[in-house]
Amino acid sequence: LSICFRTVEPLEYYRRFLKENCRPDGRELGEFRTTTVNIGKCLCSITTADGSALVKLGNTTVICGVKAELAAPAADSANKGYIVPNVELPSLCAERFRSGPPGEEAQAASQFIADVIENSQMIVKDDLCIASGKLAWVLYCDIICLDYDGNLLDASVFALLAALKNVQLPLVTINEETGLSEVNLKQKNPLIIRKHPVATSFAVFDDTLLIVDPTAEEEDLATGTVTIVTDEEGRLCSVHKPGGSPLTGAKLQDCITRAITRHKEVKKLIDKVIKSITPK
């Protein structure tokens, strides 16, 4: 009977749980799903990437691979490298997605990631320059969703940050006599990461009630969503709200406060995993 009710009247089914301050999966309204991250060689799957990470938020599973290549800087940005993020939502991750060119949701997610990189200054493009006007690094950041069950943005930002922290770039110099670049694969340095942005997403129910880390079903039933991105200093990097129910100043501040707390949890998790894989 409960399954039939959930199928026929999903919103009313959810409301009955929300009245008791809980959700059908047993979580409280402010409770995140179990979060795990595997970094680099723990994955044993992206051997060609210069940095990689796999993040799971409940069932939502996202993998990020970072590939570093050399290129000439743009004429109007002689001292800057490039960062090219791309989010893929293949048909295998959920029935709602189709094979072919990137859909609207994938494009929006890619733009969101690009904005987070820019606004947070997690990587300063000047740090990617090797020789002004001659040579710079290009970081291709491919984020692929393997299993979609809501809250793609939180998982994507987390996977991106973890993968970037795993990147080791070889020493590159330019031979003054020949003008050619020389790569020393034996001498590698970690990527300089200036800030550590973390995304925290909320779904809005009936225009007033906020729940964190929504599942795909909860996103479909919600009257709106909002994603808050903060860094380790508690600085607000981005507020992403694609339409839906408006939020009062007090509600938005509540979201920001919770996002700052969530940041500490995610940063602690990344640091713990990196420590465990770092050679002693």
> Which structural class is indicated by helix and strand composition?
alpha+beta
CATH structural architecture = 2-Layer Sandwich
Show unreliable segments: none
Largest sheet data? 6 strands, mixed
Number of helices: 6
| Assigned CATH superfamily | GHMP Kinase, N-terminal domain
CATH topology value: Ribosomal Protein S5, domain 2
Computed over alpha carbons, the radius of gyration is 21 Å
Strand % is 25-35%
Keywords: Acetylation, Cytoplasm, Exosome, Nucleus, RNA-binding, rRNA processing
Organism: Ptilorrhoa leucosticta
Protein name: Exosome complex component RRP43
GO molecular function: mRNA 3'-UTR AU-rich region binding
Protein described:
With 280 residues, the chain is an alpha+beta fold. It has a single domain, classed as Ribosomal Protein S5, domain 2, CATH 3.30.230.70. The protein has six helices and twelve strands. The strands form three sheets. Strands 1, 2, 3, 4, 5 and 6 form a six-stranded mixed β-sheet that branches. Strands 10-9-11-12 form a four-stranded antiparallel β-sheet. Strands 7-8 form a two-stranded antiparallel sheet. Helix 3 packs across helix 4. The longest helix has 29 residues. The radius of gyration is 21 Å and the shape is elongated. The protein starts with a helix and ends with a helix. The model has no long low-confidence stretch (mean pLDDT 90).
